[in-house]
């Protein structure tokens, strides 16, 4: 399969997760689709739960333990089942959810949110029931949502109405609508700067769309011959795109395409004959790809190089007999850098909850290892939604992962906070009461003022 070469990530390994580090006890939603079933910020992760009202469990990475139905606090507020969710890359406490009820909701997780205590036991708390923002515009259920990688408060959504919409969540306004798909969208991804996005459709086509004009710029008419879902991944700034899917003979395969010429792939890598869709987790900082298949126990690791043969095998990845239902990657800012952890995947299973998989490069030194930690995307947006919509094109703001540099590289700036309607109403009432009090003081002192 993959070729082997010398690499500083050649010996990356992942030990089986310990039972005390897993998150268990919840009954997962039975909704099926092309989503990942789990998403993570540097502090929290989210999984959809079984039952009505669109319930989501929001857990903390540093608080593993057992969820207790009816006791552990959850987030809920949709009228239908939740299909996808996404964390704001510039605000670790903001979660977007999409639902069968055709709406998208934005939520704020309190800073003191702790559904599981330090002892691993469930803590009674107040559920999150009020959203910050509701985005309404799709005619049918909203299947997938993706935040913009460089612009603040821009969100893309795809729906069963065969459209992709872009939103400015700060103003709750729809920016554009792409409606040239004739079938269900199976994947949507932004490019490195967020000027374009790609959609993989059930009609086996991959479309590359100008995000501002909502026009197709390029297209792969037949990405994979098989009928299973297709996933897309931009390979950083290389100008290459990776797709995963099935061949006509139902074998799983990975293809590399050059955006300058999409007539045929540059390379086709045959994987195996399993039935589950492949979900590529790509680390743009290190060019390492983690190939995860739905229903698989193992996770393959390989390194991408922008020249033939393109893929190079790394160690044995992660091996397990426990099938994977969904998976996500924790942002690089949330890793244990001093333990040489280069990636952490959260694996969702039906029987054993959520398992953190820590991929580590073995090093003898306890010092920071700059050769395996290039600068990574920070939590500071490169531009505002208005600037981006006006034509601004910038790559992500980056930061050093060296703990000594974090205070001086621009990371950690407080993001703009949204407030719910009830919170704003409460603030207004307090201000009105204060005004009445001050007016009473002026009246008592006989001081005249403008009462308009």
| Radius of gyration (Å) | 23 Å
- How many individual β-strands? 32
The overall pLDDT, averaged over residues, is 91
Distance, first to last CA:
78 Å
Biggest β-sheet: strands ordered side by side in the sheet:
1-27-26-25-24
Fraction of residues in helices? under 10%
Tertiary shape: globular
Number of helices: 2
Runs in which pLDDT lies below 50 for 5 or more consecutive residues are none
Strand content: 25-35%
What class would the helix/strand composition place it in?
mainly beta
**Biggest beta-sheet profile:** 5 strands, mixed
Write up what this structure looks like.
With 452 residues, this protein is mainly beta. The protein has helices at residues 385-389, 421-444, and strands at residues 3-4, 13-14, 23-24, 38-40, 44-48, 56-60, 65-66, 82-87, 94-99, 103-108, 133-136, 142-147, 154-159, 164-168, 173-178, 185-190, 196-201, 206-210, 215-220, 231-234, 240-246, 252-258, 267-272, 278-283, 288-293, 299-304, 311-313, 326-329, 341-348, 354-360, 376-377, 398-399. The strands form 9 sheets. A 5-stranded mixed beta sheet has the order 1-27-26-25-24, with no helix packed on it. A hairpin with a 4-residue loop joins strand 17 (196-201) and strand 18. It starts with a strand and ends in an 8-residue tail after the last helix. The mean pLDDT is 91.
């Amino acid at each position: 399969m993959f070729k082997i070469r010398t690499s500083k990530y050649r010996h990356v390994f992942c030990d089986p997760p310990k039972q005390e580090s897993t998150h268990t006890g919840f009954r997962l939603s039975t909704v099926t689709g092309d989503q990942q079933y789990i998403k993570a910020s540097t502090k929290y992760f989210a999984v959809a739960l079984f039952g009505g009202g669109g319930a989501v469990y929001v857990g903390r990475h540093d608080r593993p333990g057992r969820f207790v139905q009816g006791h552990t606090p959850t987030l809920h507020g949709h009228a239908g089942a939740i299909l996808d969710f996404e964390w704001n890359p510039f605000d670790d406490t903001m979660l977007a959810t999409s639902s069968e009820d055709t709406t998208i909701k934005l939520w704020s997780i309190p800073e003191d949110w702790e559904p599981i205590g330090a002892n691993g036991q469930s803590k009674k708390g107040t559920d999150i029931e009020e959203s910050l923002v509701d985005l309404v515009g799709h005619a049918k259920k909203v299947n997938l949502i993706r935040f913009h990688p460089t612009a603040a408060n821009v969100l893309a959504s795809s729906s069963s109405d065969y459209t992709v919409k872009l939103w400015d969540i700060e103003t709750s306004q729809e920016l554009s609508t792409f409606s040239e798909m004739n079938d269900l969208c199976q994947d949507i991804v932004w490019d490195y700067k967020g000027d374009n996005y790609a959609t993989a459709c059930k009609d086996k086509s991959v479309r590359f769309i100008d995000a501002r004009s909502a026009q197709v710029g390029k297209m792969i008419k037949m990405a994979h011959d098989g009928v299973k879902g297709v996933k897309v991944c931009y390979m950083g700034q290389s100008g290459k795109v990776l797709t995963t899917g099935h061949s006509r003979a139902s074998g799983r395969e990975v293809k590399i395409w050059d955006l300058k010429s999409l007539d045929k792939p540059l390379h086709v890598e045959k994987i195996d004959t399993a039935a589950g869709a492949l979900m590529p987790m790509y680390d743009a900082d290190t060019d390492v790809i983690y190939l995860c298949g739905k229903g698989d126990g193992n996770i393959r690791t390989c390194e991408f190089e922008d020249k033939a043969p393109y893929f190079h095998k790394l160690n044995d990845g992660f091996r397990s007999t426990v099938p994977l239902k969904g998976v996500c990657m924790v942002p690089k800012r949330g890793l244990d850098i001093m333990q040489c952890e280069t990636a952490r995947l959260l694996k969702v299973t039906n029987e054993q909850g959520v398992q953190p998989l820590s991929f580590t490069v073995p090093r003898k030194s306890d010092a920071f290892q700059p050769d395996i930690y290039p600068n990574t995307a920070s939590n500071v947006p490169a531009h505002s939604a208005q600037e981006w919509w006006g034509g601004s094109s910038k790559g992500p703001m980056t930061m050093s992962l060296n703990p000594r540099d974090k205070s001086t590289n621009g990371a950690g700036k407080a993001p703009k906070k949204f407030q719910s309607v009830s919170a704003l109403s409460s603030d207004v009432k307090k201000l009105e009461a204060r005004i009445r009090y001050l007016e009473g003081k002026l009246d008592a002192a006989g001081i005249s003022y403008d009462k308009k």
